[in-house]
Amino acid sequence: MTQPASPNDETPEVLASISASGPRRVFGIATLAVLGGLLLYLGLSTSPSPLWQVFLLVLGVLVLLLAEKTRRATERVIQLTHAGLFTDQGEEIAKLDVIVGVKRGMFDLKPSNGFSLVLSTSRSRRWQPGMWWAWGRRVGVGGVTPGSQAKTMAQILEALLVEHGQAAQ
Asked: Is 82 within 8 Å of 13 (Cβ atoms)?
């Protein structure tokens, strides 16, 4: 017998979401996989010295691991709620009350097709290739995501910050 859901069990309203663009995702993962394969091939076939051979093999394996990490990261969806930015699995990217500003200008430090957030406090470093990264008081969102989804999310986020009186002047 199931219990009726309490009001606290409600899922938060998703205001906007960003997911990886199919063609960009495939191109990014395939490029990394081909690079990793070429490095392994070079390491196994033509190496001037054993040291170079080990270097090429290790680098090839690392690039293939990066391709796999990118594949897993781009399966996720980033969601904006009234509480902040989260992944579809509930991982916190940035809570709304610590976001000071949204940077999305041409010369701002941000991912391709995305935006960056300036936080009032530092958070732990985190990197989900192609989707988002966090470093100190900066969080970048974007990469293999469609620019239109990121622009919409950034605009809604800016409006939320103004509504809460948190927008940087």
From this structure: yes
Fill in the amino acid letter for 47. S
Scan for tokens 């090429």, then name that residue: 56
What pLDDT, in 10s, does the model give residues 100-120?
988 888 777 788 888 999 999
Q: How far apart are CA 76 and CA 114, in angstroms?
A: 16
Q: What is the per-residue pLDDT across 60-82, written as a single tens digit (0 to 9) for each?
A: 999 999 999 999 999 999 999 88
User: How many residues comprise the chain?
Assistant: 169
Instruction: Give helix 22-45 / helix 50-73 axis angle, nearest 10°.
Output: 160
Amino acid identity at 34: V
Three-class DSSP category at 4: coil
Cα dihedral sign, 110-115-117-122: negative
